[in-house]
Amino acid sequence: QGARPAATSDPTVQRIVVSPESRVFDADTKQQPLLVTATMSDGTTRTITQSTAPAVGQKVTVEGSQLKARA
């Protein structure tokens, strides 16, 4: 069946923020924890980190608050 089609009354994404804005690299685990939050048209916020996580091994950069995949 899958997901239902979006209704015109469903909130839409207005803004996406990636945190932290500056690098906080954990030298022990060699990881950069990120939190990706979407602000919706109805004023609510949703954590969307899992649905935006890069594929294993994919390189990404953070420019300001934007997550960008690199080739």
Quick take:
The protein has 71 residues and is mainly beta.
Based on the model shown, name its key terms.
single chain; 71 residues; mainly beta; 3-stranded antiparallel β-sheet; 6% helix
Q: How would you characterize the overall build of this protein?
A:
It is elongated, with a radius of gyration of 15 Å. A three-stranded antiparallel sheet has the order 1-2-3. β4 (59-63) and β5 (66-70) form a beta hairpin. 6% of the residues lie in helices and 37% in strands. The mean pLDDT is 77. The protein has 71 residues and is mainly β.
Give the strand tally. 5
Mean pLDDT: 77
Poorly predicted sequence stretches spanning 5 or more consecutive residues:
none
DSSP helix fraction: under 10%
Strand content: 35-45%
Lateral arrangement of strands in the main beta sheet: 1-2-3
CA gyration radius, whole angstroms:
15 Å
Question: What order do the helices and strands come in, and which of them pair?
Answer:
Layout: E1 13-19, E2 35-40, E3 45-47, H1 49-52, E4 59-63, E5 66-70
